[in-house]
Write a structure and sequence with these properties.
The chain is an alpha+beta fold. It has a five-stranded mixed β-barrel. Strand 2 and strand 3 form a beta hairpin. The longest helix is centred in the middle third of the chain and has 10 residues. It is globular. The termini are far apart.
């Protein structure tokens, strides 16, 4: 079984291209923090190349950008090609079957939203709004 689930942040804007037959391909890299910390307390991060096809590729290109948080479900694929210097090059990437967008374009606006934002028609931080209504 070859199944991968990843959650991380895009390290660069997605790159959308098309094949000669017109299929959309979107490539991006996902930064995924490891679960466990090393002996010095730091958690390593892996940078994983992701490939999407067709409608998923179009949607990723349209709605994701550098820093966006996304969940990926797919499979690992390894391929090889001959480099310009004649050497054999190997590439390992995840071909995503499903991509869940975990952040939206407006998320940056919520980070520093004041508690009284609802009074001046600005976005309201949902957590702050709930805290203001608590009875204790």
């Amino acid at each position: 079984m070859n199944k991968v689930f990843l959650i991380g942040n895009l390290t660069r804007d997605p790159e959308l291209t098309t094949t000669q037959t017109g299929l959309s391909i979107c490539r991006f890299s996902l930064a995924v923090t490891r679960r466990y910390a090393s002996a010095d307390g730091n958690r390593d991060t892996d940078f994983i190349n992701i490939v999407t096809w067709r409608t998923t590729a179009d949607n990723c290109s349209k709605y994701l950008k550098k820093g966006s948080k996304a969940a990926i479900c797919g499979s690992i694929q390894t391929r090889s090609y001959d480099g310009t210097d004649g050497s054999k090059r190997y590439v390992t990437e995840v071909v995503a079957d499903e991509v869940q967008f975990l952040s939206s374009k407006g998320d940056e606006e919520f980070i520093d939203a004041p508690a009284n934002a609802k009074d001046n028609n600005k976005p309201v931080d949902k957590l702050t709004a709930v805290e203001d209504d608590l009875p204790f």
